[in-house]
Amino acid sequence: MKTKFLALFLIVLSIQACNSSSDTDITETEKDETPSDTPIKEEEPEEEEEPTTYPFTKDGVKYGEDYVVFEPEITKSDLGLWVKRVPGNPEYHEGNVAPINNGYLEFTGNNLNGGSAKSPLKYTFTCPKTAKYRIVMRMYQPLNDHEEGDKRNDVWIKLAGTFSSKCVFPTEDLKKNHKFWGRGVRKWGSAHKMEGHVNGVKKLNKAIYYLSAGQSYTLTISGRAQGCSLDYILFYNDVSNYSIETHDDPAVKLPASYMPDVIETN
Asked: What letter does residue 76 receive in the DSSP assignment?
């Protein structure tokens, strides 16, 4: 009798345990199926960047699709031995094509043959397109009647940033001061070639840099020969059909778009 009663008691406990487990499963299932009170945020579509419209000018630097150009006057460096020439100055030279915005910088230090780098001027710009860029400058030599054509015609230049050389000069050489010269004998011409030594051999060649889009670069121009005058500095894609040679005036030889913007004055 006791054995039957014990068996019956165990059966009742087993049934209650099953019912309890079933209730728990139902409750947990219901909880899982209950929608969350926190609203689901819909992902907002990313805004597409508008394509850059060229040319445009920022901080005095004019950007084209494959060129960068600026006047030497936009520098934030102390001019030091550089002097701005404007109409009304006895030394001002206008020429067939007047200087951009009626002004340019003339170096007044050292002597007519040259000298050490003085009064460095810095210019920072961002490359608009990955490509090979040649540097040229609109340059004027204020020579006296008895002075030869290879005087007052050069500056020192160097470039800082991540780039590689696409000319005879090694990349590391382009990051150091080198003589940059040209011809503009009593007229507006150009500084267009670099002078240096490669493996002990003197070289006179174009300076060409492989620059990367979006990268920042800083050009430093220092005075070398007294009197050398600069109207503007241009980096342009070397694969174009345009070339500057000795005595060429960039304002005449190259497209007008390669010149800095003219600032309207009232």
From this structure: -
Alpha helices in the chain (DSSP H): 2-33, 171-174, 250-253
- For residue 241, give the amino acid letter: N
**pLDDT surpassing 50 at residue 253:** yes
- Pair 249, 189: CB distance under 8 Å: yes
pLDDT tens, position by position, 73-94: 999 999 999 999 999 999 999 9
CA angle 230, 232, 233 (to 5 degrees): 105
Tell me the one-letter amino acid at 224. R
Is the CATH code 3.30.56.10 the one for domain 62-258? no
The Cα–Cα gap between 164 and 240 comes to: 19
Residues contacting residue 65 through CB under 8 Å, at least 6 positions apart: 54, 55, 128, 129
Return the domain boundaries, the chain.
Answer: 62-258
In 3D space, the residue among 262, 263, 261, 254 whose CA is nearest the CA of residue 235 turns out to be: 254
